[in-house]
């Protein structure tokens, strides 16, 4: 009987070891699967320039006319950044207004992620936001042409401000795109998602103060397809 028990113990030990190894392998594969992603815009598109990279690019492009400088900047990025980073910058350059920028960071926000953008040569905006990894893969929220401004202009709050500030218009300020905050996210039901993005309202002069903020919702369906932008509200700026 004792020999039979010892025999069973010897038999069970390899089985137990095999089960432990199998569990370890499954866990390892799950971790690897989580590390890998099919997102079109991932960590490889993020560029963290070395201390001299931006200066070197500026030196290479200094002879270009002002109208061609931003294009030169994106072209020169290929010598310093990954092809994914350059591709992202090329997309940004095609937006309105055309600006030379690069992806400086990513913030996970569910199916759609927030891309942080740096604009090293822009006189009016040094940082911005994009919504990435949906369909299309990149939505530039700082492209004001995407916004239904005609709907905003019918809003009573905006109309009242327009009387006092006749040239009132939308703009994007650095404070609107801080790297320390995230846009508000709202669930729209059935898996749809809205990002509430704020913009500044001011008259077009360097010394003009921001008098209000306008909020717009960028909507995505459950599959990540971009559905468009909706005007939400105008709020006076806090003093």
Keywords:
33% helix, 239 residues, five-stranded antiparallel sheet
How would you describe this protein?
By secondary structure, the chain is of the alpha+beta class. It has one domain (43-236). Helix content is 33%, strand content 26%. The chain contains 6 helices and 9 strands. Strand 1 (102-107) and strand 2 form a beta hairpin. Helix 2 (53-61) packs across helix 3 (66-77).
Strands, count? 9
In percent, how much strand structure appears in the residues? 25-35%
The helicity comes to 25-40%
Q: In terms of structural class, how would the helical and strand content be classed?
A: alpha+beta
Low-confidence stretches: 13-36
Cα-based radius of gyration, to the nearest Å:
25 Å
Q: How do you describe this structure in short?
A:
The protein has 239 residues and is of the alpha+beta class. It has helices at residues 2-35, 53-61, 66-77, 83-93, 149-153, 156-164, and strands spanning 102-107, 113-118, 127-132, 138-140, 169-171, 184-189, 192-202, 212-220, 226-236.
Topology:
Blueprint: H1 2-35, H2 53-61, H3 66-77, H4 83-93, E1 102-107, E2 113-118, E3 127-132, E4 138-140, H5 149-153, H6 156-164, E5 169-171, E6 184-189, E7 192-202, E8 212-220, E9 226-236
Antiparallel strand pairs: 1-2, 2-3, 3-4, 5-7, 6-7, 7-8, 8-9
Helix pairs in contact: 2-3, 3-4
């Amino acid at each position: 009987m004792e020999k039979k028990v010892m025999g069973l113990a010897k038999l069970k030990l390899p089985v137990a070891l095999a089960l432990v190894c199998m569990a370890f392998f499954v866990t390892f594969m799950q971790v690897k699967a989580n590390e890998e992603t099919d997102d079109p815009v991932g960590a490889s598109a993020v560029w963290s320039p070395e201390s001299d990279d931006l200066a070197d690019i500026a030196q290479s492009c200094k002879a270009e006319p002002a109208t061609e400088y931003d294009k030169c900047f994106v072209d020169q990025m290929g010598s310093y950044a990954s092809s994914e980073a350059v591709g992202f910058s090329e997309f940004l350059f095609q937006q309105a207004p055309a600006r030379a920028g690069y992806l400086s960071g990513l913030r996970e926000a569910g199916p759609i992620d927030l891309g942080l953008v740096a604009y090293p040569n822009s006189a009016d905006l040094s940082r911005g936001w994009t919504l990435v990894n949906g369909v299309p893969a990149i939505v530039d929220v700082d492209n004001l042409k995407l916004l239904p401004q005609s709907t905003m202009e019918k809003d009573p709050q905006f109309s009242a401000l327009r009387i006092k500030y006749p040239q009132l218009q939308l703009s994007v300020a650095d404070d609107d795109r801080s790297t320390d905050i995230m846009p508000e996210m709202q669930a729209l039901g059935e898996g749809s998602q809205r990002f509430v993005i704020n913009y500044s309202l001011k008259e077009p002069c360097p010394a003009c103060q921001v008098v209000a903020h306008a909020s717009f919702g960028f909507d995505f369906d459950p599959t990540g397809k971009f559905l468009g932008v909706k005007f939400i509200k105008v709020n006076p700026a806090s003093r």
